[in-house]
Every structure is written in C-alpha cells, then in structure tokens.
Amino acid sequence: MHVRKLTGGLVAALAVTFSLMGGQATAAPTGTASATEDVAAAARVVTYDAGGSAEFRSAVDRGAAIWNESVDAVELRPVAAGQRANIRVLADDGWPRALTTSLGNGTVWIGRQAVNEGHDTIRISSHELGHILGLPDRKPGPCTSLMSGSSAGTSCKNAYPNAAEKAEVEGYFGGAFAPTAGSVPLNTLIVD
C-alpha cells in the first residue's frame, strides 16, 4: 500500500539528513520482508463485531475490507470469539448512524430506512465505519466523497474514500505524531 512504498524513501532521506548534520545513520535495505512486516505491524488493529448486523453482514465485511485496502495505519478485523470489539455493528429499521465513543471505538447502525430508499449497503457500511475512524459528514457532496453520504443520491455506489479522506484517517492513526482524536465529536450520535 502507499505507506509501504514511502518507507524506503523516508529511510533514505533520514540517512542523508543525519549524514549532513554530522551524525551517524544507517539505512535499512528497502523492499525486504522485514521492512514490510515492520510497517504492517505498525498498523493499529481495530476490531468489529458484525454479529448484530443481520442481512448486512457481508456489506459490513466488505466496508471493512475497503478501508483495509485504502489505508495502512489502521486495520479493521472481525473480533475473535470471546473478545470485546472496538466497534459494534447493528441492523435496525431506522436511518444509518454512528456513535463514536473514542477514535476507533463506537457503535454503527445499518438502518433499513436508507436501504429501503435505495441507498447502497456497502457504501452505507463504509461511510459509517468512516465515522468511527474519525471522519465527519461532508454534506452536500459528490459521489466521489464517501463522507457525502446520502447527499450523493441513491444512484451513488462509491464505497471508497477519496484521497483526502484516506489521508485524514492515515493522519489520525499514523503513529506517534498522530492526533489522538478525529474530526468527529465524541459521544455524539451522527445520523446520516
């Protein structure tokens, strides 16, 4: 993914910087399995429980997979049996919404009302997970913006975050210098 590609260049830039400052630096070889494993290990794992998502289970899993394809700093995984999940995903008859309790933690409802109106279940899932990852609604907005939500209309099937949305999530989860919270107010119900 894109962070892994940047790692080699960053290591080289740091080595040059340190050598120019008179310090000692060694550059790790790029493209090695250990460098890739180190970057993958740095991703924050956020677990989700889709056991209450009823008929939307596959859409929730696909929404999580889309985020995993799109960003490197956080990885969404189904919770292991007997463990508590960071994110609980439920289905109900209302409108889709998310309750964020802290960055990477909260509850998502995949509301049947939006589905019955014709909104795409995978886009809904990916959008609501985006709230838990720190992103606010950006309405009105175009279909190319995942966080435009329902304002993009029922014909919009795009379930992928755009470059700005990806960068924002990477910034929230991207290591020691990342902010501790996203743009979404915590302990606030976000109804889409």
Give an overview of the whole structure:
- The chain is α/β, with parallel strands linked by helices and 192 residues long.
- The chain is 37% helix and 19% strand.
- Strands 2-1-3-5-4-6 form a six-stranded mixed sheet.
- A hairpin with a 2-residue loop joins strand 4 and strand 5.
- The radius of gyration is 19 Å and the shape is globular.
What class do helices, strands and sheet pairing give?
alpha/beta
Give, in spatial order, the strands making up the sheet with the most strands.
2-1-3-5-4-6
| Proportion of helical residues | 25-40%
Give start-end ranges of low-pLDDT stretches.
1-37
Mean pLDDT equals 81
Keyphrases for this structure?
192 residues; alpha/beta; six-stranded mixed sheet; 6 strands; globular; disordered N terminus
Layout of helices and strands:
Layout: H1 2-20, H2 33-42, E1 44-52, H3 57-70, E2 74-78, E3 87-92, E4 97-102, E5 105-111, H4 112-116, H5 121-132, H6 163-173, E6 188-191
Helix pairs in contact: 3-5
Question: In a nutshell, what does this entry contain?
Answer:
This protein has 192 residues and is an alpha/beta fold.
